[in-house]
UniProtKB/TrEMBL annotation:
Residues 511-554 form the Cationic amino acid transporter C-terminal domain. Keywords: Membrane, Transmembrane, Transmembrane helix, Transport. InterPro entries: AA/rel_permease1, CAT_C. The keyword Zinc-finger does not apply. It comes from Faecalibacter macacae. GO terms for cellular component: membrane. Coiled coil: none annotated. This is Amino acid permease. It is a multi-pass membrane protein. It is found in: Membrane.
Amino acid sequence: MSQLFKKKSVDQILSDAEKNTNSLQKTLGVTDLVSLGIAAIVGAGIFSTIGLAAFNGGPAISLLFVFVAFACVFTALSYAQFASTVPVSGSAYTYAYVAFGELFAWIIGWALILEYAVSNMVVAISWSQYFVSMCEGFGIHIPKWLTMAPQYATEAYQKSLEIGVDKLSGVEKIALEAYKTAPNIGGLPIIFDLPAGIITVLVTMLVYIGIKESKKASNFMVIVKIGIILAVIIGGAFFVKPENWTPFAPNGLGGVMGGVAAVFFAFIGFDSISTTAEECKNPQRDLPRAMIACLIICAALYISITLILTGMVNYTELNVKDPLSYVFHYVGFDHMAGIISVTSVVAITSALLVFQLAQPRIWMTMSRDGLIPKKFATVHPKYKTPSYATIITGIVVAIPALFLKMDFFVDLTSVGTFFAFIVVCGGVLYMDKTGLSEKSKFKVPYINGKYIVPLAFIAGIVLTFIYGQDSLEQWKTLGSMDLIAHKSLVVIFWIAFLVMSILSFKHNFSLLPVIGIMINLYLMSELGASNWIIFVIWLAIGLAIYFMYGHKHSKLRQQNS
């Protein structure tokens, strides 16, 4: 049991990094890091999932972006402190190893595998949709059965049998066409998303070749991306009709919070910067600056673009996969819509690139610690990249992207991310308590939460009873199974809030990391129970692998022995 929670010291991690002759090439400065952060954050979220979030929450979804950005600020500050203290690859995995020990490090590493792999599946599928739209704009028509997940087509076929073809939406009619025109083998239609698979392979090849080439490509694509988003904001402002912002929150708070997964998915990219620490020229200085800068820039862009989209068309029209080009088609500005389709393909490619960079570096770090096979730590002698891990990442992302729906992945990736963010914020509290913060070149500003956190807990309870009567009445109507399925996470949130209040009072916890923990935990409680069930299954598989392989081959355990 003591080995499971054995921690790595900061000095030991830095010493191991210096001794490692198989290291990566240091080539990234603060501008490159900000560019990579923007590339990751301003990706499929702004070009795809933002439409679904606006459809569910209405114009008020812009406030959710404010809230999520606010939540991410506290997490980004915690990441920045860890990055300045432990400037090596591994992101939250390495930070958990320092703060909570090997078992927690494995759990976070396993969760990050889910985060990055699943995120890239979403990005690849989103890229495919924009690519197909762009091709059609140039008169190139790819067969529909080569452009989507088979589940879309089969669901559209079943729905057509139930309600008739005439009542299908435009997207469903396209899916039905895919079903009817697809070749069959043994009566089974052959349908898959070929562009999603191809772009994943091409980006993986670029990442494999080297960080310099990836950096140059990313910087170019970010310039294109920011340019088109500013064009959308400025050009779209002329088509805004204020009446489209009424009602502002048509589905109430529930509709707004229902978009948590889609909105938070947009922001998860900032932690990918920390995975490139080994390739930074001055990670202790540049990583904190880059994280905070790209978060502020991206939050402003997201909030602005949401207000423009919901002002140009009614929110009920935004349940589409390519909302930016759709709104300009809607207002009759087809040339702008065509430009957006072309540049969106470039923009989303940059997000795919950064996530494909991040995942192999986490695997490489875990392999160096002995928790997964040493083959994953292989660095290419010429290109200085984690070659084997990069290839495996490409395979793991490309195959599901060919066959699975995007909606499922968006929710699932957020669970793992919230989990990692909470651990990083909690790790800062540990560093403060043990004195490790003295080694940090960047520190989360300290505000004593001794009284503030307990008072916030009491205020939350009071406000819930005053303004949350509708929700409380709903609880009374639910059966025991429904309560477990849909409300257990809310109960966990309030229990955790109580525990943090007691601990803050007892140990004078720093307020900002506590806020980060509680906001992330609250957002987690808004996700569906089905996502949690899948995540728990994923963790169970991970723990089985750890106890069968990782625990036995752990280098830290062998050193202690």
